[in-house]
């Protein structure tokens, strides 16, 4: 079978009885040798090579295979990662600074973190098949609102520092005194702020014209040109300040205040909401999320109800469904903040849903009393430590503290040596001060070892420290009185059996990749292989603080450096930064790097960013955040960039042209053949080319961003490179850059990283979300050069197969010059309006057939964008096509005058089907089992369609009692 050998040489091992069970590509790629003749025939080509020839323009096709090693087996990969894990040294890290060791409850680890029912789900845009994760996120929001004492919280942000920057910019947008807005641009930042947060605030402040003023909150005097302030609670080295009078003073001057707070401390401390602050942000990492050498972790963002329309990220809200039953969905314009494009104030798209779900479950499992126990234990440990060291003659600096103390020592050098010998990390503030943070994992014997390090390093004798007085370390005025988490959900599931069943109950309401194909265009919902995921649970990867000395993280360093090199090879670029925690953050990082490049050449005035009309909404939002002015260029009837229009705009703005942002293949799913002409045009006029790499799944091994003439791109590792979507995050959005941009790659203030003229931080952690980088590393390592390329070919094959199976029934809007789609296609649903059918009706009807809808109305309203990926089998592709064709027939049966039809009423719930009355003009069987395959694997949506308008009018974003929203 020669065709097959051409296609996937690895599969040669497959032939006959000799099935090679070690080839990962054969597990990752869904189609097999046997499927090819039929698929190629359906498409109308003789070979895979012909299809690729007809899909990718000749002048950008790679001449050589990827310069990467052969793939390795899953077994080999796992033992490789075991070996690398040994190179990470798991110390007791008391470094703090926003990261703490935590105990992930095993029931959460096994049933969520390691469960594809949770980690392979998509962002809950289709509420009817997402009630489980929506409820888990509502729990998270409620927990955050309660602990911070704020009215409303979102469903997570990327990390604490990013959340702080979002607060700074939100308050900037909301600043009062509009009559002299330009002059009110100063933002006070307490010197107690975490160093990584300060670095990130700098990055974000500069392009917006915000001037940061760092100082001591106790002595600082506001002048008229301040609009806001940011405080850290407790301070970076643990001092607990009473900010009440600062806030009062600021409010009197119409200055808005944000507080970055430690979530666990809020169990014991007065919540900032009680001072009347405007926003509270922070991380929920210490609620059961592994350190993971920096991430991923879920940050939180809480604010006042009155700012609800300005909140970054997504908010889950309560509404009702068609039958009036309680239903959850993403609320307000936060469903798609960046839809506002260049009017957007934030570019957050992917956030940290999986981690927020875990942190919320940690709160559900422990309940308010469990959290109090944990907080008190941590606090008590800290007091014991402080009092013991004081009893031994050391000076403890913090007059009040929750979990962190500062201790004066004679000689940090000696202490550091000894501590590291005993497997302990502290934070060394300066030559004679150390900062030590306690956490829930600290035991009595850990404390003793720690204290003995101090004694030994100062040649002091061991001492009995039995009856220490542990007087209050939190002043009476700062002790929390307000109750929290009183809702039933936080007071019901404290046994493992109960929580296990609660998690399962929610999981059952959701459709994830473990049920069926999720063909979301632009999102690349491919396999997240178990072998890629397994190492995430190992302590040598999970339990590493991001600020440990490099020699303790050699396993990580090897993985991260190799991943950077792998991505350099795949993109054709010179260097990579893994820091950005999402694609949108990558866009922002890439544009900031371009900005720094222009500045370095004395061309800092270049500030025009040209973006095609069809671009993803995050593109213009990121450009604005980077201080650029967006100029929109048209697309022609074929969906390509209108080169004449582009040329006009480039020439007009040549003087100030900073960059073009272009998605390739385009968001229309087409390899535009004029791409090289386009990138040259930009270069000829002094601009740089930013390529949005969300569609990289159509490029890997066949072409690359460097070849098309781009200078920088981001990659969505959570799309192309197998990191699961987690229901809306985590994400990793590294940027890969050409040589001239390399010096400007972002840095970190604590651990050196980035280029030689690095911009300040993009994310809090030096290498972003290191833990999940293991997944992409494994994906590339196991597929190898050939497997990666074959995955791309299979993705293109599958898309074109669907396109041709739907031919004649659904119009595909765009195609390349030779009639081929790339890895996705847009089907037009607008003509069905004549029958009264909207694209949403098709999306909802697909649920009855057991499928998640493709991408709805992006990039063209009234369409579906379908992307099958390489991981789906021919059988699954056929099921999906059968469903679409069956729906097409149902559309024909529908008439505009009669909205009581099977499409308009979709999805159909079990409640409808089993109701004694059935007044629909079609059978129950047609409603629920429209095709025979459905019966054997039926998915039942838990609600009917949600009422968006009702929910937006009556915004409730916490687990309020049911009566409350019904009356609203
Ligand atoms: C997904 C996507 C983005 C944004 O990526 P996030 O990781 O969600 O921030 C940007 N552009 C395109 C074309 C995308 O599909």
TrEMBL record:
* Sites of N6-(pyridoxal phosphate)lysine modification: 719
InterPro entries, per database record: GcvP (IPR003437), GDC-P_C (IPR049316), GDC-P_N (IPR049315), GDC_P (IPR020581), PyrdxlP-dep_Trfase (IPR015424), PyrdxlP-dep_Trfase_major (IPR015421), PyrdxlP-dep_Trfase_small (IPR015422)
Q: Keywords in UniProt for this one?
A: Oxidoreductase, Pyridoxal phosphate
Required co-factors = pyridoxal 5'-phosphate
Cellular component annotations (GO), alphabetically ordered:
cytosol; glycine cleavage complex
Q: Name one GO molecular function term.
A: glycine dehydrogenase (decarboxylating) activity
Fetch the Pfam families from UniProt.
GcvP2_C, GDC-P
What enzyme class is recorded for this protein? oxidoreductase
Q: Which reaction does it catalyse?
A: N(6)-[(R)-lipoyl]-L-lysyl-[glycine-cleavage complex H protein] + glycine + H(+) = N(6)-[(R)-S(8)-aminomethyldihydrolipoyl]-L-lysyl-[glycine-cleavage complex H protein] + CO2
What region holds the Glycine cleavage system P-protein N-terminal domain? 27-454, 463-747
One GO BP on record is: glycine decarboxylation via glycine cleavage system
Q: Where would one find coiled-coil regions in this protein? A: none
State its Enzyme Commission number(s): 1.4.4.2
Keyword flag Oxidoreductase: yes
The answer, when asked if Plastid is one of the entry's keywords, is no
Q: Where is the Glycine dehydrogenase C-terminal domain?
A: 791-908
Functionally, this protein is described as follows:
The glycine cleavage system catalyzes the degradation of glycine. The P protein binds the alpha-amino group of glycine through its pyridoxal phosphate cofactor; CO(2) is released and the remaining methylamine moiety is then transferred to the lipoamide cofactor of the H protein.
Entry similarity comment: Belongs to the GcvP family.
Q: What quaternary arrangement does the UniProt entry report?
A: The glycine cleavage system is composed of four proteins: P, T, L and H.
- Name of the featured protein: Glycine dehydrogenase (decarboxylating)
Annotated source species: Flagellimonas marinaquae
Please state the gene responsible for encoding this protein.
gcvP
């Amino acid at each position: 079978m020669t065709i097959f050998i051409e296609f996937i040489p690895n599969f040669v091992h497959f032939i006959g009885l000799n099935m090679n069970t070690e080839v990962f590509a054969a597990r990752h790629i869904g189609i097999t040798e046997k499927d090819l003749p039929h698929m190629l025939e359906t498409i109308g080509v003789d070979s895979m090579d012909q299809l690729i020839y007809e899909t990718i323009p000749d002048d950008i096709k790679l001449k050589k295979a990827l310069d990467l090693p052969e793939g390795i087996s899953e077994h080999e990969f796992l033992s490789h990662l075991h070996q690398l894990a040994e190179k990470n040294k798991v110390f007791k890290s008391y470094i703090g600074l926003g990261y703490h060791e935590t105990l992930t409850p095993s029931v959460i680890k096994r049933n969520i973190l390691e469960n594809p029912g949770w980690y392979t789900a998509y962002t809950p845009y289709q509420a009817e098949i997402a009630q489980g994760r929506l409820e888990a996120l509502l729990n998270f929001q409620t927990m955050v609102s309660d602990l911070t004492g704020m009215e409303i919280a979102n469903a997570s942000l990327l990390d604490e520092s990013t959340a702080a920057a979002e607060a700074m910019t939100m308050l900037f947008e909301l600043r009062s005194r509009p009559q002299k807005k330009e002059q009110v641009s100063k933002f006070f930042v307490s010197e107690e702020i975490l160093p990584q947060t300060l670095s990130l605030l700098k990055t974000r402040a500069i392009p917006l014209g915000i001037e940061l003023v760092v100082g001591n909150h106790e002595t600082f005097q506001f002048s008229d040109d301040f609009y806001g302030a940011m405080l850290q609670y407790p301070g970076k080295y643990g001092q607990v300040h009473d900010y009440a009078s600062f806030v009062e003073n600021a409010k009197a001057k119409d200055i808005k205040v944000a507080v970055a707070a430690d979530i666990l401390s809020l169990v014991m401390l007065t919540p900032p909401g009680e001072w009347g602050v405007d926003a509270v942000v922070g991380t929920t990492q210490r609620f059961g999320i592994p350190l993971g050498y920096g991430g991923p972790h879920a940050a939180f963002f809480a604010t006042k109800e009155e700012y609800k329309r300005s909140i970054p990220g997504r908010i889950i809200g309560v509404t009702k469904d068609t039958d009036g039953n309680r239903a959850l969905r993403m609320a307000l314009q936060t469903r798609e903040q960046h839809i506002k494009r260049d009017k957007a104030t934030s570019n957050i798209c992917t956030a940290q849903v999986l981690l927020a779900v875990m942190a919320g479950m940690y709160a559900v499992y422990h309940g308010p009393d469990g959290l109090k126990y944990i907080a008190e234990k941590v606090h008590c440990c800290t007091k014991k430590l402080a009092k013991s060291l004081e009893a031994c003659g050391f000076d403890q600096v913090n007059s009040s503290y929750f979990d962190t103390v500062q201790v004066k020592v004679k000689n940090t050098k000696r202490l550091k040596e000894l501590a590291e010998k005993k497997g302990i990390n502290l934070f060394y503030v300066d030559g004679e001060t150390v900062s030590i943070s306690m956490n829930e994992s600290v035991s009595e014997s850990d404390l003793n070892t720690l204290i003995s390090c101090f004694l030994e390093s100062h040649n002091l004798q061991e001492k009995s420290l039995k009856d220490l007085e542990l007087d209050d370390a939190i002043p009476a005025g700062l002790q929390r009185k307000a109750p929290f988490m009183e809702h039933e959900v936080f007071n019901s599931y404290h046994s493992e059996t109960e929580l296990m069943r609660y998690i399962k109950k929610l999981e059952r309401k959701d459709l994830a990749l473990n049920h069926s194909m999720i063909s979301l265009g632009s999102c690349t919902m491919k396999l997240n292989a178990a072998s890629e995921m397994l190492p995430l649970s190992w302590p040598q990867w999970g339990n590493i603080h991001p600020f440990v000395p490099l020699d303790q993280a050699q396993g990580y360093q090897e993985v991260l450096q190799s991943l950077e090199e792998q991505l350099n090879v795949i993109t054709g670029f010179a260097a990579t930064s893994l820091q950005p925690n999402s694609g949108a953050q990558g866009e922002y990082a890439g544009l900031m790097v371009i900005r720094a490049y222009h500045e370095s050449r004395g061309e800092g005035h270049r500030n025009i960013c040209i973006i095609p009309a069809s671009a993803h909404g995050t593109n213009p939002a990121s450009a604005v955040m980077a201080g650029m002015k967006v100029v929109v260029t048209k697309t022609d009837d074929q969906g390509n960039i209108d080169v004449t229009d582009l040329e006009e705009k480039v020439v007009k703005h040549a003087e100030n042209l900073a960059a073009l942002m272009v998605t390739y293949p385009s968001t229309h799913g087409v390899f535009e053949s004029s791409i090289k002409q386009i990138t040259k045009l930009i270069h000829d006029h002094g601009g740089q080319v930013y390529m949005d790499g969300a569609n990289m799944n159509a490029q890997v091994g066949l072409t690359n961003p460097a070849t098309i003439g781009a200078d920088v791109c981001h990659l969505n590792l959570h799309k192309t490179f197998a990191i699961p979507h987690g229901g809306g995050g985590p994400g990793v959005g590294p940027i890969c850059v050409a040589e001239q941009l390399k010096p400007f790659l972002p840095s970190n203030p604590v651990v050196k990283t980035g280029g030689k003229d690095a911009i300040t931080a993009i994310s809090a952690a030096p290498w972003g979300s290191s833990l999940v980088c293991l997944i992409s590393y494994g994906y590339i390592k196991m597929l190898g050069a050939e497997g990666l390329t074959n995955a791309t070919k299979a993705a293109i094959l599958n898309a074109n197969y669907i396109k041709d199976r739907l031919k004649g029934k659904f119009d595909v809007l765009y195609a390349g010059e030779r009639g081929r789609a790339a890895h996705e296609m847009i089907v037009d649903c607008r003509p069905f309006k004549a029958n009264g059918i909207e694209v949403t009706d098709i999306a909802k009807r697909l649920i009855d057939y057991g499928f998640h809808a493709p991408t709805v109305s992006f990039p063209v309203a009234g369409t579906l964008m379908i992307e099958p990926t390489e991981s789906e089998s021919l059988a699954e592709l056929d099921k999906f096509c059968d469903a679409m064709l069956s729906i097409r027939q149902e559309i024909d049966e529908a008439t505009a005058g009669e909205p009581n039809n099977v499409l308009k009423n979709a999805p159909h719930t079990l409640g409808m089907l089993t109701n004694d009355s059935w007044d629909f003009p079609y059978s129950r069987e047609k409603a629920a089992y429209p095709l025979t395959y459905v019966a054997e694997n039926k998915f039942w949506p838990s609600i009917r369609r949600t009422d968006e308008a009702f929910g937006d009018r009556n915004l409730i974003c916490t687990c309020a009692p049911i009566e409350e929203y019904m009356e609203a």
